[in-house]
Design brief:
Helix content is 3%, strand content 46%. It is built from one helix and 25 strands. Strands 2, 3, 4, 5 and 6 form a five-stranded antiparallel β-sheet that branches. Strands 1-25-24-23 form a four-stranded antiparallel β-sheet, with no helix packed on it. The longest helix is centred in the N-terminal third of the chain and has 12 residues, at 3-14. Mean pLDDT is 93; it is low at 9-19.
C-alpha cells in the first residue's frame, strides 16, 4: 500500500462525517409505469437526474414474453423511455426520448464530438447508451438529448456502458465504464476522463485487477462517488465461479490518485446475488448506497448508509421486500430538497406477471 493511500485512509478515519440521524424508514411505494403484457426494466442502465423536486429517470420498455420463465421475459419491439416527476416522485409522466444531432438532425450515425460541452450548466444531464460506446447530453433537464456522440474503444472490442460520471469542472469529467476482458467476455471496469468538454477522452486506469478468465469472473457496472478526501470510491458488481461455486456480490474499490490506481476494500461487501448498486451523497454528508436484492425470499431493494465517508457502513435497511421473483432491482436514487430519498427500480410482485417501473420514497434517517 502506498504512503499516499495510507495517509488518505488515516485522514478518513480520523475525520469522519459528523451527523446525528434516526433509523431509516419507508414512506410509500409508487407505481411509475405498469401496463398489461408489458415489461419495464433496468433504470440502473440508463440514469437518473434531479433538479430539486424535478426528477427524470430512464428505463427500457418492451413486451412481456410469456414463453420465457427463467430469465428476463422481455421481447421486442423494445425502446428506451424516461419518466419525469415534478413533485419529488409522487406522480410521474412518461416521455419518449427526444434525441437531436448537433446538426439538428434526428436519427442516423453517431457524431464526432467537437468538445466544449459545459458540464456545469445548471440544467445539465449526461448519459451513455446502455451497452455501447455512445454518449448524449442535455442542457434543458433531459427534455432534449443532443447526440449520439462517439466514445473511444481504447483498443477493446466494445464498451459496455452504464451512466456513471463525476463532474470536476466546466469541461472536465470522469466517467466509469466497463469493457470486455482480454478474452472478449464481460467485464472489467475502468475510469476515463475528458478535459476538453467531450472532444477527446483518456483511459485513466482499470478499476482493480482483471477478473480471472478461467472462472468466468466479471466486474461490471460501477457506481462512483468522490469522497471528502478527494479520493474516488466505486462500488462494483462482481460474479463468477470461485472454488467450484458461482457467486455474485458487490465490492468496493478506492482510488487515491484520480482514478489511475485502485485498491479493493473490505467494506462494503454485499452478497446480493447479482444487482448493481447506486451511491449518492446525502445533504447531511452521509453516503447512501442502494442495490437490488435477488437472494431467495424478500426479493426487492435494500440500502446501507455510511456516517464516516465510506469507512464503515450501517445495518442493511429494506427499502422494499415484497418482490416475488429474482428479476427486479437495478435502482437509481436521488434526494429531494426536503431530505427524503426517491429510489426508482424495476419490480414484480404478486399483483401480476408484468415487470414494472416503481419508486419508493424513504427517509434516510433525517433527524426531525
Amino acid at each position: 500500500m502506498t504512503n499516499k493511500l495510507t495517509k488518505l485512509l488515516l485522514t478518513i478515519a480520523l475525520f469522519p462525517v459528523l451527523s446525528i440521524a434516526e433509523e431509516p424508514s419507508v414512506a410509500k411505494n409508487i407505481i411509475v409505469l405498469k401496463e398489461k403484457d408489458r415489461f419495464g426494466g433496468w433504470p440502473a442502465n440508463h440514469g437518473i437526474w434531479n433538479w430539486g423536486d424535478e426528477i427524470v429517470v430512464g428505463f427500457a420498455w418492451g413486451h412481456h414474453d410469456d414463453s420465457n420463465e427463467g430469465g428476463h421475459p422481455i421481447k421486442g419491439p423494445t425502446s428506451n423511455r424516461q419518466a419525469r416527476s415534478m413533485d419529488g416522485g409522487e406522480t410521474w409522466v412518461i416521455e419518449e426520448l427526444l434525441v437531436i444531432g448537433p446538426d439538428g438532425s434526428t436519427g442516423g450515425d453517431a457524431f464526432d464530438c467537437e468538445g466544449g460541452i459545459n458540464f456545469n450548466h445548471p440544467d445539465f444531464a449526461f448519459k451513455f447508451s446502455p451497452g455501447n460506446a455512445r454518449f448524449y447530453y442535455s442542457t434543458d433537464r433531459a427534455k432534449n438529448w443532443i447526440g449520439p456522440f462517439k466514445f473511444p474503444l481504447f483498443g477493446r472490442t466494445e464498451i459496455m456502458a452504464r451512466t456513471d460520471y463525476i463532474i470536476n469542472g466546466k469541461h472536465d469529467m470522469n466517467v466509469f465504464l466497463t469493457s470486455p476482458k482480454d478474452d472478449g467476455v464481460q467485464g472489467w471496469p475502468f475510469c476515463a476522463r475528458t478535459i476538453d468538454g467531450g472532444k477527446t477522452w483518456e483511459l485513466i486506469g482499470w478499476i482493480g485487477p482483471q477478473p480471472p478468465i478461467e472462472s468466468y469472473g466479471y466486474a461490471i457496472m460501477p457506481s462512483t462517488l468522490r469522497l471528502n478526501s478527494g479520493a474516488f470510491l466505486s462500488i462494483i458488481r462482481r460474479g463468477g465461479f470461485f472454488d467450484g461455486t458461482k457467486r455474485w456480490w458487490l465490492e468496493a474499490f478506492l482510488s487515491a490518485d484520480d482514478g489511475k490506481s485502485w485498491h479493493a476494500l473490505k467494506e462494503p461487501y454485499i452478497d446480493n446475488f447479482g444487482n448493481p448498486a447506486h451511491m449518492i451523497r446525502l445533504k447531511d454528508g452521509r453516503i447512501a448506497l442502494t442495490y437490488g436484492w435477488r437472494k431467495p425470499s424478500f426479493f426487492g431493494v435494500r440500502a446501507k448508509i455510511s456516517n464516516d465517508d465510506g469507512v464503515t457502513w450501517g445495518d442493511e435497511f429494506v427499502v422494499r421486500g415484497d418482490g416475488d421473483v429474482w428479476d427486479l432491482g437495478y435502482p437509481r436514487t436521488v434526494q429531494r430538497p426536503d431530505g427524503m430519498c426517491v429510489s426508482v427500480y424495476y419490480f414484480k410482485d404478486k399483483s401480476g406477471k408484468e415487470r414494472h417501473i416503481a419508486a419508493t420514497i424513504w427517509n434516510p434517517g433525517l433527524k426531525e
